[in-house]
Amino acid sequence: MAGRVCLIKSVISALPLYYLSFFKAPKCICDELKKIQRNFLWGWSFENRKITWVRWENICKPKEEGGLGIREIGNFNRALLAKWKWRLGMEDKGLWREVLESKYGSWRNFNEIVIPKSASRWWKDIHKIC
């Protein structure tokens, strides 16, 4: 069981990391990733299904709270997208920041601006998350 938890944390949760940091994953994708994690943890196979002894919400809790510390994909995706707004506020320089400010305006009025229809899907997702 410990080996499975280690593999879930280091491989299954890490593979989509790049995409989750840039794009808001649809709910069906998050559900499918969660299903893969659950099936791998409980040892599911095509011949038989194993009993799930603990709710998945409890598995995803931090170790200090009695869980196994496995990331919940949907929350992790939202946190990675929200980090972009945080980076806009914390970093003073950078080409990526200059490009975004020239295209969409200042980040300081982020919650008050109207998103243009020509805005990228990424910018719209960040605006929704934040």
Could you explain how this protein is built, in words?
- This protein is 57% helix and 0% strand.
- The protein starts with a helix and ends with a helix.
- The longest helix has 18 residues, at 73-90.
- The radius of gyration is 19 Å and the shape is elongated.
- The protein folds into two domains: 2-76, no CATH class; 78-129, no CATH class.
- It has 130 residues and is mostly helical.
- The chain is built from seven helices and no strands.
- The relative contact order is 0.13.
List the main descriptive attributes of the protein structure presented here:
2 domains, mainly alpha, 7 helices, 130 residues
Rounded average pLDDT: 82
How would you spell out the order of helices and strands? HHHHHHH
Q: What is the 3D form?
A: elongated
Classification by helices and strands: mainly alpha
Major β-sheet annotation: none
Number of continuous helical runs: 7
What is the number of domains?
2
- Regions with little confidence, pLDDT below 50 for 5+ residues: none
Task: Name the helicity range.
Answer: 55-70%
| Gap from first CA to last CA | 37 Å
Strand residues, percent: under 5%
Specify Rg, calculated over alpha carbons: 19 Å
Q: Total strand count, please?
A: 0
SSE map:
Blueprint: H1 2-12, H2 17-22, H3 27-42, H4 56-59, H5 73-90, H6 95-104, H7 121-129
Structure in a nutshell:
By secondary structure, the chain is mainly alpha-helical.
